[in-house]
Amino acid sequence: MNLTNAHSLPEALYRADAVQALDRCAIETQGIDGFDLMHRAARAAFRQLLRHWPHAARVAVLCGGGNNGGDGYLVAANAYQKGMAVDCVAVTDPDRLKGDARRAFDEATSLGVPIEPVEAVSDKALFDRLCASDAIVDALLGTGITGAPRAPFDRIIQRVNRAGIGVLAVDVPSGLNASTGLASGDVIHARVTPTFIGLKAGLMTGDGPDCAGDVVFDDLGVPEATYDAASPVARCVNWRRASTMLAPRRRGAHKGECGHLLVVAGEQGLGGAGILAAEAAARTGAGLVTLATRPEHVSAALTRCPSLMVRGVTHGNDLCPLLSGVDGVVFGPGAGQGPWGQQMMQQVLARPHPLVLDADALNLMASRAPARRENQVLTPHPGEAARLLGITTSEIADDRLAAADRLQERFGGVALLKGVGTVVQTRAERPAVIEGGNPGMATGGMGDVLSGIIGSLLVQGLPAFEAAWLGASLHAEAGDRAARKQGQRGLLPMDLIGELPACLSDSERVGAPGSPADGEE
Ligand SMILES: NC(=O)C1=CN([C@@H]2O[C@H](COP(=O)(O)OP(=O)(O)OC[C@H]3O[C@@H](n4cnc5c(N)ncnc54)[C@H](OP(=O)(O)O)[C@@H]3O)[C@@H](O)[C@H]2O)[C@@H](O)CC1
Ligand SMILES: Nc1ncnc2c1ncn2[C@@H]1O[C@H](COP(=O)(O)OP(=O)(O)O)[C@@H](O)[C@H]1O
Ligand SMILES: [K+]
Question: The whole model's pTM is what?
Answer without folding.
Answer: 0.94
